[in-house]
């Protein structure tokens, strides 16, 4: 339960957004950041998570109203809580914060607020590298989901093929994917490949050939790293994703994208990509876990 003062400040944040009053939003976010930090210091995780949710919702509402400064302040507030939750090793709150970056970034992309989407993706990219290096499975997966959702939203917009924001999402996912493979975080590596495949599907619907080519290259890099580490499921998912891209690109007459995916696919050892029911079930279970995490965060 929030105290009356906390409820009052949350209301102030939303009312200020309706009135497009930046100072009111800033006051609310500062208060929520301070009280959230106190909860984390006292290891009151449910209360801290509720604070995170409030900041996320204020950030999304600000984005929908086109209030760029308020949206930036929400992301910065979440960064402060992220730092403290990591220091306190409070995994649930950390995951909640990371998914919140994705939610705000996705909303920003849908509103064509490119700077906000780019900021959220950049914060996630840095967090993902850190989480992977520390072998933090759930935190890494939260980053992957957030980056993928921003990437898919960006690809749906009428930006030039392979916009800067799309390139950032692909690059960050690829970097995190290679790190997870090197650290033997197989579920996370598969998660990266799943999100890249979903981004490719969105890009193909928009006929973004350069985007699809870049995604195919990134999937190949993650898959080859996984192959070096003998991570069977990640290799299979990489090959499966590339096969799907080849087929769908051909059907949409995206010849350059299809050729790029086919070349990437041919780099894998055929012996290593024989699919089995066990592999299929494992990959589908990872997909369902990711979907559940995202639905719980929005």
Mean pLDDT: 93
Stretches where pLDDT is under 50 for at least 5 consecutive residues are: none
Radius of gyration: 20 Å
Major pleated sheet: none
Structure class: mainly alpha
**Secondary-structure element order, N to C:** HHHHHHHHHHHHH
- Give the quaternary arrangement of the chains: single chain
| Number of β-strand runs | 0
Instruction: State the distance separating the first and last CA atoms.
Output: 20 Å
Set out the fold topology:
Elements: H1 4-18, H2 22-41, H3 45-64, H4 68-87, H5 91-110, H6 114-133, H7 137-156, H8 164-182, H9 186-205, H10 209-228, H11 232-251, H12 255-265, H13 277-297
Helix pairs in contact: 1-2, 1-3, 2-3, 2-4, 3-4, 3-5, 4-5, 4-6, 5-6, 5-7, 6-7, 6-8, 7-8, 7-9, 7-13, 8-9, 8-10, 9-10, 9-11, 9-13, 10-11, 10-12, 11-12, 11-13
List its traits:
single chain; mainly alpha; 298 residues; 13 helices; globular
């Amino acid at each position: 339960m929030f105290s009356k003062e906390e409820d009052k400040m949350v209301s102030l944040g939303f009312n200020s957004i309706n009135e497009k009053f930046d100072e009111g939003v800033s006051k609310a976010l500062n208060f929520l950041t301070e009280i959230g930090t106190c909860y984390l210091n006292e290891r009151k995780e449910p209360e801290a998570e509720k604070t995170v949710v409030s900041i996320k919702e204020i950030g999304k509402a600000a984005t929908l109203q086109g209030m760029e400064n308020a949206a930036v302040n929400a992301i910065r507030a979440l960064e402060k809580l992220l730092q403290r939750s990591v220091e306190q090793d409070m995994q649930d709150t950390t995951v909640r914060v990371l998914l919140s970056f994705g939610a705000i970034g996705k909303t920003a992309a849908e509103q064509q607020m490119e700077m906000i989407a780019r900021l959220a993706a950049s914060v996630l990219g840095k967090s993902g590298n850190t989480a992977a290096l520390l072998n933090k499975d759930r935190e890494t997966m939260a980053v992957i989901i957030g980056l993928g959702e921003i990437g898919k939203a960006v690809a749906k917009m009428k930006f030039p093929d392979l916009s800067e924001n799309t390139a950032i999402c692909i690059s960050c996912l690829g970097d995190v994917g290679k790190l997870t493979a090197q650290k033997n975080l197989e579920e996370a590596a598969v998660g990266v490949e799943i999100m890249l495949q979903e981004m490719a599907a969105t890009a193909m619907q928009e006929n973004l050939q350069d985007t699809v080519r870049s995604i195919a290259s990134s999937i190949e890099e993650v898959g080859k790293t996984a192959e070096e580490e003998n991570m069977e499921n990640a290799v299979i998912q990489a090959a499966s994703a590339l096969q799907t891209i080849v087929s769908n690109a051909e059907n949409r007459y995206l010849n350059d994208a299809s050729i790029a995916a086919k070349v990437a696919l041919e780099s894998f050892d055929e012996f290593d990509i024989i699919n089995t029911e066990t592999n299929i079930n494992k990959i589908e279970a990872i997909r369902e876990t990711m979907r559940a995490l995202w639905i719980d965060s929005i």
